[in-house]
């Protein structure tokens, strides 16, 4: 077997030459680091070769050795210079080790360049206009801040259901009563239920619904017993006048609206033209007509209906929720909608399917008011029957949290001993302060 | 045999001889006699009172779903959906098959290694067969050598499995029904759009509706991308609040993944229309709502 001797020098030095030095800009901020790395990386701090030719140490024949080295050098590098002709990288005077700032020639060149050309560089005094570097989150925050005036913020009133939900049972009962009275009143008066949208606030009850009593009619519907015969009419008229003030039709559009009311359609070409002249969109015109129409209807019907209603209600029995079916989909929908606006609670679609009577609706509302249990133990304890059933199983225990080692030690009465021993040795007693299960 | 017949006759005679209760309400015969007792309908004196709670063996044929406005979530109206669309029983097995099918289908299967003849290099024998004292070796691409080929490595392949179309379509509707039954399907009228690409606006909106991170995130399904660019952009930033996809981007797994599904009415319609092969005979899907024609 033939054995190759190792090269004496570090492998890097076998390369034709070290990397050429980069010309460095004098005022460039990157300069020191670049130059430093360029020079330093070329000097290998160690060599894998032995400090001396250990395999030849037994042979002091220098001539033979030199010939051998040269032969190999020739083979590897393709040059016949003797080894000594190369620069020793470990020598302090080696050009590899000379720092670029000490290499006068290059620096002089750079000075000439700098002095000769106008760089057009001015230092920024404020940060405005400079490129910003930051995370996406920061950029988004900046964007929001920049557009704070023009971008609308989410208001609690943007949500149809109030954010603070009613959980109190008495308040829920009140809200249920109010919703039933309001929806049935408006339905019987023939007024559009959109009226309700404007007095969504829980504390503002212009109809004084708490004074109205609910009665069950013989035909299986709900009747309302108002405190006075004129109470509702007054309310509706007052409400309508408020409405009229808010959506003032104005004299300029009066004729147009009359015409619209007569025609009843907005798709006619001539009417479209007139709308254009009056600078009204179709949607605006439609709402205008809707308001006027509903106002007419209410004015006509309300007083008559309410008088009849009160008469029949007085004759009717006390309301028993269980007995009254809630099959009218329109009524059901509007009740649910009103309840959502009053309480902030939503009854989900599958639960709405289960509602057949007023009582069902009330019970679903109560169920929706209870916050959803987040832990299994909460769910078990919420239902006493279920809790009793689980508790009665001999080998089952319920814990509101994870059973830890400390809990297990406490159970067998060993914890006191452990605690004492820990304190005795001055070791802190870790674990939860309150560890009662 | 004869004795058996005789016994039988005797038995029938004795049965006839027994007095029949006239008041029995369930006497019906199929003979075409003029007697009122023989008619198929029960007579007046034997009226069966209707049960107070009539049993429905099949369940409701259609269900009501509330359509909401966006972003206020104001309930706008009820809409009826067939029970075969939104009120199917929860079949975990079908959902599982669909999710596995989708998972297999989406596997890229691009893992690849080189066999010895695909490795670049010479096929020259690296050392003589005999005489070196070392093992016999062929070329240096042998799987036994470092840098050689891989013997039984992965090659690109198709991992997809099969699932009957009808089962998959049933799974789609089962997933939606599951959401509906849990009250986690919110149907939106029109398009879900926001006025500005404001993250804080969407964040506040999600918190107000209970859709956000602490409520289990939400999947928003839209009809198309048109007009929702801002919202999509914001949702990409608010990944911990949920995700927004178009109806043809979502799959069964997505529908089951998050806390709830908020879906545009037209998107729901398209999903239901294109996943009912087990209900209809036609393989053509008709009546899909085009995203380009939607009013925003």
From TrEMBL, chain A:
It is found in: Mitochondrion. GO terms for cellular component: mitochondrion; ribonucleoprotein complex; ribosome. Keywords: Mitochondrion, Ribonucleoprotein, Ribosomal protein. It comes from the Eukaryota. InterPro entries: ACP-like_sf (IPR036736), Ribosomal_m50 (IPR018305). Belongs to the mitochondrion-specific ribosomal protein mL50 family. This is Large ribosomal subunit protein mL50. It comes from Delitschia confertaspora ATCC 74209. The lineage of its organism: Eukaryota, Fungi, Dikarya, Ascomycota, Pezizomycotina.
From TrEMBL, chain B:
Residues 33-44 have a biased composition (Low complexity). GO terms for cellular component: ribonucleoprotein complex; ribosome. One of its GO terms (biological process) is translation. Keywords: Ribonucleoprotein, Ribosomal protein. Residues 33-52, 115-151 are annotated as: Disordered. The keyword Ribonucleoprotein applies. InterPro entries: Ribosomal_uL4, Ribosomal_uL4-like, Ribosomal_uL4_dom_sf. One of its GO terms (molecular function) is structural constituent of ribosome. Belongs to the universal ribosomal protein uL4 family. PANTHER family: 50S RIBOSOMAL PROTEIN L4, LARGE RIBOSOMAL SUBUNIT PROTEIN UL4M. This is Large ribosomal subunit protein uL4m.
């Amino acid at each position: 077997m033939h054995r190759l001797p190792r090269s004496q020098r570090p492998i890097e030095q076998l390369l034709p030459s070290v990397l050429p030095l980069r010309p460095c800009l004098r005022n460039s901020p990157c300069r020191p680091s670049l130059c430093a790395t360029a020079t330093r990386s070329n000097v290998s701090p160690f060599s894998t070769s032995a400090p001396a030719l250990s395999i030849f140490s037994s042979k002091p024949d220098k001539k033979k050795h030199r010939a051998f080295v040269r032969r190999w050098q020739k083979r590897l590098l393709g040059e016949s210079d003797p080894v000594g002709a190369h620069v020793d990288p470990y020598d302090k005077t080696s050009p590899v080790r000379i720092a670029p700032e000490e290499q006068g020639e290059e620096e002089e060149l750079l000075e000439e360049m700098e002095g000769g050309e106008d760089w057009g560089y001015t230092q920024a005094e404020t940060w405005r206009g400079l490129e910003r570097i930051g995370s996406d989150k920061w950029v988004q925050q900046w964007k929001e801040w920049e557009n704070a005036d023009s971008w609308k913020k989410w208001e609690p009133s943007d949500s149809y259901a109030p954010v603070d939900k009613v959980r109190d049972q008495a308040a829920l009962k009140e809200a249920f009563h109010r919703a039933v009275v309001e929806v049935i009143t408006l339905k019987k008066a023939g007024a559009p239920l959109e009226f309700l949208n404007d007095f969504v606030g829980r504390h503002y009850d212009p109809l004084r619904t708490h004074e109205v009593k609910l009665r069950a009619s013989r035909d299986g519907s709900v009747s309302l017993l108002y405190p006075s015969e004129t109470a509702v009419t007054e309310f509706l008229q007052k409400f309508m006048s408020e409405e009229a003030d808010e959506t003032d039709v104005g004299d300029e559009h009066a004729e147009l609206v009359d015409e619209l009311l007569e025609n009843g359609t907005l798709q006619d070409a001539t009417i479209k033209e007139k709308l254009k002249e009056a600078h009204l969109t179709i949607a605006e015109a439609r709402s205008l007509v809707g308001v006027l129409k509903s106002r007419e209807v209410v004015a006509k019907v309300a007083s008559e209906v309410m008088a009849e209603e009160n008469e029949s209600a007085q004759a009717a029995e006390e309301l028993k929720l269980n007995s009254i079916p809630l099959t009218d989909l329109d009524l059901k929908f509007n009740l649910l909608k009103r309840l959502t606006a009053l309480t902030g609670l939503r009854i989900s679609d599958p639960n709405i399917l289960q509602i057949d009577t007023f009582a069902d609706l009330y019970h679903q509302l109560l169920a929706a008011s209870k916050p959803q249990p987040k832990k299994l133990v909460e769910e078990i304890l919420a239902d006493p029957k279920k809790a009793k059933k689980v508790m009665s199983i001999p080998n089952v225990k319920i814990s509101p949290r994870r059973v830890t080692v400390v809990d297990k030690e406490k159970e067998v009465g060993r914890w006191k001993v452990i605690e004492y021993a820990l304190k005795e040795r001055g070791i802190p007693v870790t674990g939860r302060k309150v560890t009662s299960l | 045999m004869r004795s058996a017949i005789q016994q039988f006759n005797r038995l029938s005679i004795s049965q006839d001889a027994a007095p029949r209760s006239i008041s029995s309400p369930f006497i019906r015969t199929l003979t075409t006699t003029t007697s009122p007792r023989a008619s198929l309908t029960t007579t007046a004196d034997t009226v069966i009172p209707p049960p107070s709670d009539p049993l429905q063996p099949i369940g409701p044929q259609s269900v009501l779903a509330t359509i909401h406005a966006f972003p206020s979530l104001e309930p706008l109206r009820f809409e009826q959906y067939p029970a075969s669309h939104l009120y199917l029983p929860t079949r975990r097995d079908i959902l599982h098959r669909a999710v596995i099918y989708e998972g297999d289908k989406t596997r890229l299967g691009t893992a690849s290694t080189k066999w010895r003849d695909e490795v670049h290099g010479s096929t020259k024998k690296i050392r003589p067969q005999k005489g070196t004292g070392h093992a016999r070796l062929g070329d240096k691409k042998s799987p036994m050598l470092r840098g050689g080929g891989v013997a039984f490595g992965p090659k690109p392949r198709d991992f997809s499995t099969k699932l009957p179309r009808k089962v998959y379509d049933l799974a789609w509707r089962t997933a939606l029904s599951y959401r509906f039954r849990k009250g986690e399907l919110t149907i939106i009228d029109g398009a879900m759009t926001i006025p500005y690409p404001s993250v804080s606006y969407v964040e506040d909106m999600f918190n107000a509706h209970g859709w956000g991170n602490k409520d289990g995130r939400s999947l928003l399904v839209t009809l198309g991308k048109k007009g929702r660019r801002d919202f999509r952009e914001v949702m990409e930033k608010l990944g911990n609040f949920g995700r927004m996809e178009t109806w043809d981007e979502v799959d069964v797994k997505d529908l089951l993944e998050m806390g709830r599904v908020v879906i545009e009415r037209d998107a729901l319609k398209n999903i239901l229309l294109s996943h009912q092969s087990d209900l209809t005979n036609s393989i053509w899907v008709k009546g899909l709502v085009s995203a380009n024609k939607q009013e925003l």
